Amino acid sequence: RSILLDSQADLLIYGMGERQIVEIAQALDSGVPAKEITNIKGTAWKTKDADKIGELSGTENPVFLPSYDQILESKKKYGESFMLQYKNTDSITGKVLIESYRDNYVVVNPPQAPLAQRELDKIYALPYQRNYHPRYEKAGGIPAIQEVKFSLISSRGCFGGCNFCALTYHQGRVVQARSHESIVVEAEKLTYEEDFKGYIHDVGGPTANFRGPSCQKQLKHGVCRHKQCLFPEPCSELEIDHKDYIQLLKKLKSIPQVKKVFIRSGIRYDYLMNDKNRKEFFEVLCKDHVSGQLKVAPEHISDNVLQKMGKPGKEVFEKFVKTYFETSKKMGKEQYLVPYLMSSHPGSTLEDAIQLSEYLRDTGYTPEQVQDFYPTPGTLSTCMYYMEMDPRTMERVYVPKTPEEKSMQRALIQYKKPGNYSLVYKALMKAGREDLIGYDKRSLIRPGAQVQGSKKPQPTKNKNTKKRRPR
């Protein structure tokens, strides 16, 4: 059910919310009751009268989603509803969406337009404390603050199109960037913090190297409803340029109290590899902005899984890796990559998980962390997980759901861990890949190792059996 109904609220805000908050406050201040605030973009409201929805929302062509009862009864109807929502996440092309309940209609207005640069700069100029709430002091604070306290948000939005990400819904596909001046001023403020050591930990956003819209057309006509900017191949209209980001990093690096400026948020490597002038960014990145290791997110290596994820193929990642290490060496740096990997994503079979293990064996990567896929609201991947179908095509999708298989797929990525031996052994046997149990270079595990959790067989006691000396 809609959280708007369960909460018994009159109005719901979705997205980043700043403009909605101001517009709602102005409406309330002028005496409009909350129940009558029905035409603000980026909000949802409820009504019992379907005939007045068009008039109240200010639109003539609302789109009716399958009813709540229908999506409970049919996974296909759920997928149909999801896709209608998925294609209406743009402020220019988005329609008013209506979901009917037995005694109510939930009306979702189109998203708010992306903030202008001056608006974004104004928001980030507010006197934020850059710390956790004082209530947490008694519990010893929040250690994770150290990872973000000296980081700078440079942009919002993402046109990367990863299917397991909900950014499309709350920040949108149109990238909005803060001005250089706004970011430099914030960086200068950081230098006055008592615990600032001269290191800016990150300059980025959902994707660090996105600094503007993917193309100028979307500013006038909205983002494309039936295709992505980067997947399965970069769009011919995609504007790829790292010059603005390079200039921003240069300005931050020139602040007297700043020793180093690092990039820790994700770099979209397929975007970078399609830049005709990528050599310049690679050299700047590897020379000055890697803190020993760079985090990237290939997520998987099987084309079957990557297709369901909306990620580029393995060969693109391999070209990026080759260029990164060659450039680091050229810059006289010994630097590494930390690949983010995901297990059990819809579409991933045991065979796909084993394929990833073999890739890790061949490349020498030993992941310390693995993200196990779990369904989260608002993503295409979650819809696949629930439906066991791709809602775009209604074709069947294999989904690993049992705790045992999810554990096996996760363990295969970290097959070197002794504690994972029994799961890896079970997975290889189940997939008919006994060839990977052995002593040669191709093997993932050795035969005969004790299976974790199993007990050694105890000898049968017999009064007539003589004790033997151990050999």
Provide structural commentary:
The chain has 19 helices and 16 strands. With 471 residues, it is α/β, with parallel strands linked by helices. The strands form six sheets. It has a five-stranded mixed β-sheet with strand order 1-2-5-4-3, with no helix packed on it. The protein has a three-stranded parallel β-sheet with strand order 12-13-14. A two-stranded parallel sheet has the order 6-10. A hairpin with a 4-residue loop joins strand 15 (389-390) and strand 16 (395-396). The radius of gyration is 26 Å and the shape is globular.
Question: Helices and strands: which structural class?
Answer: alpha/beta
Helix content: 25-40%
What is the number of strand segments?
16
Low-confidence stretches: 452-471
Short description, anyone?
The chain is built from 19 helices and 16 strands. With 471 residues, the protein is an alpha/beta fold.
Please give the structural blueprint.
Elements: H1 3-7, E1 11-13, H2 18-29, E2 43-47, H3 53-57, E3 63-64, H4 68-73, H5 75-86, E4 97-100, E5 105-108, H6 117-124, H7 145-148, E6 151-153, E7 155-156, H8 167-170, E8 176-177, H9 180-190, E9 199-200, E10 202-204, H10 217-221, H11 243-253, E11 260-261, H12 269-273, H13 278-288, E12 293-299, H14 303-309, H15 314-330, E13 336-343, H16 350-363, E14 371-372, H17 380-387, E15 389-390, E16 395-396, H18 403-413, H19 421-430
Parallel strand pairs: 3-4, 6-10, 9-11, 12-13, 13-14
Antiparallel strand pairs: 1-2, 2-5, 4-5, 7-8, 15-16
